[in-house]
Amino acid sequence: MTQLEIVETEPTLVSEDGFGGTPDVIGYVGGDGLSIIDFKTGGGSGVYPEYKIQIAAYKVLWEQNRPEQPITGGFHLLKIAKEDASFSHHHWGNLDNAWKAFTHLLELHKLKKLLK
Fold this sequence. Notes:
alpha+beta, 5-stranded mixed beta sheet, 2 helices, 7 strands
């Protein structure tokens, strides 16, 4: 059994670096440290790189807005299939490479604006 203690649901967070987001849940899973918990619906149980990139950015957003509550329990993703409500759970302790990808994508987004 998994014990889930919810700290906050759908907080709207804005970064000093010019991006924002709304994680689904911030909470404790099974007594571990504070975690990002995200839900995705769709076909199958596959995990797209964009999912990891998004939840890595949520960590930075949360920690910039709530520095007294760092994310130490990692990242949980619950993928729920639309067809039959089957689900899969994924957990990562860190998503440093996903955060690095996000920073590159954010920089590209800013550069594209300058080219218009």
